[in-house]
Amino acid sequence: MITPMRMITYIFFCFMLFLSINQLSFANGSARSMGFITSVASDGPFDVCRNPALLTLQNENKALGFFFKYRPDIIYQYSDKDNSYRSESSTQSIESNTKIDNIEIINNLGVIFAFSSKLDKAVIGFAISGKNDNQYSKLKREYTTYSAITGSSINIYSKTEEEISNFSPSFIMGIGNNITKTSSFGLQLISIYSSQGINSDVDVFIDDIKHASITVEKDITSISAELSFGYLYQNKGLQLGLLISSGEFITRRMSLEYNYTDISDAPASFVDNSSQNKLEYSFSDYSKICKYSKSPSLTAGGYMQINSYFAIALEGSLIIENSYKDRDLNLKNNEEDYYIENKKYLITTENEIIFKGGIELNPFKILSITTGGGYTLIKRTKSISEYNNENNIRYFETNELELYFATLGFRFNLGKHLALYISGYMLKLDSAIKAFEDSGSDVWDKEAFTNMHNISTIYDLGTGITISF
């Protein structure tokens, strides 16, 4: 069986063999598909979204770019035994497992519109994009949570249908200016507006009898800003780039509302009498927070044209460790009732290093081929306090997230001033979360342990066009 990595190796070998016979002229390819490098390799007007110093490489007076991205699929690998939650009290313990029944992508669209124009020695650019290049996404998922009480034969489970929608346009402005013939610098400002809605319908069953119906509506809106400084050295076929980011400041508002309907068909031994009499009720809460959620980062890269048909680029990024406070609202339940928990986080992220690289091939004057990839490991810890209707629960959570990604793109040079792009992108995420919980209360006075392990693979397809005039 030919693995994807072996297939890429075969294709690369065949191209290198062909190119060694046909040494054709070099042409810049799309840096987007060279492993998403940002500090070097020109991408035309899209450079306003990357290292703004790259704008100075523009030859024509004006340039216009449009890129459309679509996400056709996400593949989840989910293990029941690796996604569990255990709670213990002085009288009993509850162990829960969650199983994903279905995940459906309804919409996941991204559009980038970029424009750049020369102003004497400087080049100014504007762009409308989205957070992670996505303006709008909508996801529907269904999952079942099974709970078992030690020493009890009661069978408890809940079925949840959840719809998550995101609208996150970003507005980017950048300017690049030449210092010397070989050096230039640039400034960039990114502002993102984000609106997320999470709507959930939950049915609770006890011994296969429907006990309750719950609807949850959660809305999150935020505005963020980030400032970056870029530098570029370029001499013949060599480029060295530097991008320094201030980090991200964000202000956010979150609200949560839920409606609870008690069917009252559950065993009387389980349902509290006061809860039985309250057949329907609703409750809402909200929180506001301003935070410095993303710490400063440094990105350095190099790009070299080896010969007339082959170029290579390498890049590394360092995101400095950071610690900040956060809040969240979630619907929770105990042995008797549902309630809104108000979480307070102290989140600490370790130093994060991102490696990227890519190559560019030019088999024909009309065609450039780019491919690349990257890897990073993100480690976060959370010190969490939950404030609910009875208890103040504290626990500690660790999260390790590994990201692998690969890109492939084709650029068709349809003339001196016109180019067409086609690209593909694959991202694999391996996430492991563990949490230790200690409330110090009479109800939940011992440890609670959560273990979650998820692997997901994301595929994106995109096409774009650039025009210079």
Characterization of this structure:
The protein is mainly β. Helices cover 5% and strands 71% of the residues. The protein is built from two helices and 20 strands. It has helices at 4-21, 273-277, and strands at residues 62-78, 84-88, 93-119, 122-130, 136-149, 155-167, 169-178, 183-206, 209-235, 238-262, 280-294, 297-307, 310-319, 322-333, 338-349, 352-364, 367-387, 392-415, 418-438, 447-468. The protein has a 20-stranded antiparallel β-sheet that branches. A hairpin with a 2-residue loop joins strand 12 and strand 13. The chain is elongated. Residues 3-29, 265-279 and 441-448 have low confidence and may be disordered.
Structural class: mainly beta
User: N-to-C terminal Cα separation, in Å?
Assistant: 49 Å
The biggest sheet, with number of strands, parallel, antiparallel or mixed sense and barrel status, is:
20 strands, antiparallel
- Number of alpha- plus pi-helical segments: 2
Estimate the mean pLDDT confidence: 79
- Rounded to an integer in angstroms, the radius of gyration calculated over CA atoms is 26 Å
**Share of residues in strands:** over 45%
The geometry reads as elongated
Topology as a string of helices (H) and strands (E): HEEEEEEEEEEHEEEEEEEEEE
As residue ranges, the low-confidence spans are 3-29, 265-279, 441-448
- Annotation, overall tally of beta strands: 20
Indicate the percent of residues in helices.
under 10%
